[in-house]
Design a protein that fits this description.
Number of helices: 27
Structural class: alpha+beta
Number of strands: 11
Oligomer: single chain
Largest sheet: 6 strands, mixed
Shape: globular
Length: 673
């Protein structure tokens, strides 16, 4: 999952300074190879030992979070934001006084970078830092930068400096493709705020943008807010499954895995009980989005949201979803017959399938048919082994190695955060990944990737190295064992590392399109592709060893695990969201199809390029060259075409997803032996 904050990339608020995008120019000549450090250590061992805490460093100075000197204390956020705001004012003056040309785009990108380097970092710190003072200071920095972004969005002189460039056909034709695309992206984001409209309409657009932000925040809080019910209204024997508060029972989720039908029914009906305020908030949010889209020249919000994506327009999305639904209909009916059969077997007196049943009974079918109890797998997936597996895969595929580096005092926010240097065999140091992998109090329960600093080519010819955080919620090691991962945790680790590699290898000229700052339906391709590697025995066999005996994970266990994921997958793909509890209506408005389309692209790339040999170096280099390297600096469909050597159709996407659900005959043969 990509974590896109309110300002993440400065696009949610800023028309001129966009959402997460990505890109690359031909930069090899301008990037100097980074030297190798002697302080790096093997990655696997670093994750299978307990953290030693901060080194005793009597003479070393405190460097600050992520090595930013100002951030050695919460007050440093104010210093960092003021520094960024002063630089912003200077860059605005430069942009407005510079004759239109490629330099205009460079100045805009530097302007975006100066704000993003504070806002992106603050977006992470405000939710992840264990100290309230740091979180509050980061929140204030986000507000301050947001105010500046709103100011820039209404700066007509700044807008006109870009408009002059794009209005001059001769100048536009002289721009290289990446520079032209970045200029157009800045203009697209500018115009979302209505800056091209007359004064009255522009004010209306700004007001709608502010209203949408406020409604989004309110709706997001409501999606997770628990419901409560008086105790006496619930049967006594199921009350112990929920939290009590005086005379009330608190319901904070669906309890979808509970074996008790009545528990699931109660949780479903109470947690999803319609809330009039939440419904009104959602309706106002959708209405405001529609009004804003029409005000700035689009027929609907979805037409605006899908500009620049693989799908390009809502008509293509609907065609994709409807064709997929049609193709899955027969399988879906069979899935529900299986679910009904399992419920009848376990509960013959009440065998009708209810809305709260499918997740539980499909899980029972998977467990019974394939014997995939997670505890059987965990001993083979120590965190150190999994990290070494990633290291082996990345090295053979892309010539990349991961090394553990000791962070300086004050550089990390928790002593168990590990810092990884990403090093290419010939290009040297590419960037840094901070691994915030372990559970702790008040840490968000989500697995995601944060861009802290985007890569870009600086004026002096050096490359600004990307910095990212991968956040997971893994159990800590114990006295008797290292951290052990379930299969789904291992797959999530590979998924998030796919995002990180996109950030590390997107060697774009502009940070505005660095790494994962690309259209949503392309951004999940690298991460989902890594799931295919994580589920291939040839890859898993490189690292999955029992932490006590050294025994490799048997091939049939990997095969059973892969096949189990296909059980009831068609029915699962058809499930609809409960709109008042669906937080992605904010971050993925009109774009939630993206996960399916990204999976379709990843499936095609896997089958055509890596299925025959998951360690194929030539295919890995092509993958880097055609897809990862450009971030958002190239049209996403052009990147897909470059990788697949053909232009896929909607039918191709649908076929890729459906064929992934076909059962593997070899697994049945192995299990019957």
């Amino acid at each position: 999952m990509l974590c896109v904050g309110r300002l993440g990339g400065l696009g949610a608020r800023a028309a001129a300074l966009p959402p997460r995008r990505a890109g690359r120019g031909s930069l090899e000549a301008g990037i100097r190879a980074r030297r190798v450090s002697t302080s790096w250590s093997p990655v696997g061992a670093a994750f299978n030992v307990k953290p030693q805490g901060s080194r005793l460093d009597l003479f070393g100075e405190r460097r600050g979070l992520f090595g930013v000197p100002e951030l050695s204390a919460p007050e440093g956020f104010h210093i960092a934001q003021e520094k960024a705001l002063r630089k912003t004012e200077l860059l605005v003056d430069r942009a407005c006084s510079t004759p239109p040309g490629p330099q205009t785009v460079l100045i805009f990108d530097e302007l975006s970078d100066s704000l993003c380097r504070v806002a992106d970092l603050a977006d992470f710190v405000k939710i992840a830092h264990p100290e309230p003072a740091f979180r509050e200071a980061a929140e204030e920095a986000c507000r301050s930068i947001g105010t500046m972004v709103e100011k820039l969005n209404t700066n007509v002189d700044l807008y006109q400096s870009l408009q002059k460039l794009l209005a001059d056909k001769k100048l536009v034709d002289s721009l290289d493709p990446e520079t032209r695309r970045v200029a157009e992206l800045f203009m697209f984001d500018f115009e979302i705020s209505g800056i091209h409209l007359d004064k009255e309409k522009r004010k209306r657009a700004v007001d709608l943008n502010v209203k949408i932000l406020d409604l989004s925040s309110t709706f997001l809080m409501g999606t997770n807010f628990p419901n409560k019910i008086e105790k006496h209204l619930l049967p006594e024997h199921i009350r112990r499954n929920f939290t009590s508060a005086g005379d009330h029972i608190i319901i904070d989720g669906l309890h979808a895995e509970s074996p008790d039908d009545l528990v699931r029914e109660a949780a479903y009906k109470i947690f999803l009980y319609p809330n009039a305020g939440q419904l009104k908030c959602l309706e106002e949010l959708l209405s405001s989005r529609d009004l804003l889209a029409k005000l700035v020249g689009y027929s609907t919000f979805s037409h605006r949201a899908l500009q620049g994506t693989i799908a390009k327009n809502p008509e293509t999305v609907m065609q994709f979803l409807e064709k997929l639904s049609d193709k899955l209909s027969e399988r879906t009916l069979k899935d529900f017959e299986m679910i009904r059969g399992m419920k009848m077997k376990l509960n013959p007196q009440n065998s009708e399938v209810m809305p709260w049943d499918p997740p539980y009974y499909s899980g029972v079918i998977r467990a019974e048919r394939y014997n995939i109890e997670p505890s059987l797998y965990c001993p083979f997936f120590s965190l150190g082994a999994c990290m070494e597996g990633l290291n082996i895969l990345l090295n053979r595929l892309l010539g990349i190695s991961l090394y553990a580096e000791q962070p300086a005092k004050g550089e990390v926010w928790s002593e168990d955060v590990r810092k990884l240097a990403v090093v290419h065999e010939s290009e040297g140091l590419l960037g840094y990944i901070y691994c915030d992998f372990f559970q702790r109090a008040d840490k968000p329960h989500q697995d995601c990737h944060f861009t802290i600093r985007g890569g870009r080519l600086k004026e002096d010819g050096d490359y600004q190295l990307p910095v990212v955080v991968l956040m997971l919620n893994l159990p800590r090691s114990s006295r008797s064992s290292p951290t052990l991962l379930t299969p789904s945790m291992m797959e999530n680790l590979f998924h998030e590392m796919g995002h990180a590699m996109h950030s590390m290898l997107g060697r774009t000229r502009y940070q505005h399109v660095t790494g994962t700052r690309c259209p949503t339906d392309f951004a999940e391709v690298p991460s989902i592709l890594m799931e295919y590697f994580a589920n291939d025995y040839r890859v898993v066999n490189q690292f999955a060893r029992h932490y006590q005996t050294g025994q490799p994970l048997p091939k049939n266990m990997v095969s059973r695990l892969c096949e189990s994921k296909k059980v009831c997958a068609a029915a699962d793909m058809q499930l609809q969201a409960w709109q008042l509890r669906f937080s992605h209506l904010v971050g993925y408005g009109a774009r939630y199809y993206s996960y399916l389309m990204s999976r379709a692209v990843a499936s095609m790339v896997w089958k055509e390029c890596f299925l025959q040999d998951p360690f194929n170096r030539a295919a890995g280099e092509r993958y880097r060259r055609e897809m990862l390297a450009h971030g958002g600096g190239r049209e996403p469909m052009l990147m897909v075409e470059g990788m697949l050597q053909k232009c896929p159709s909607v039918d191709d996407f649908v076929s890729a997803l459906v064929s992934d659900l076909d059962l593997d005959f070899e697994t049945f043969l192995m299990d019957s032996e």
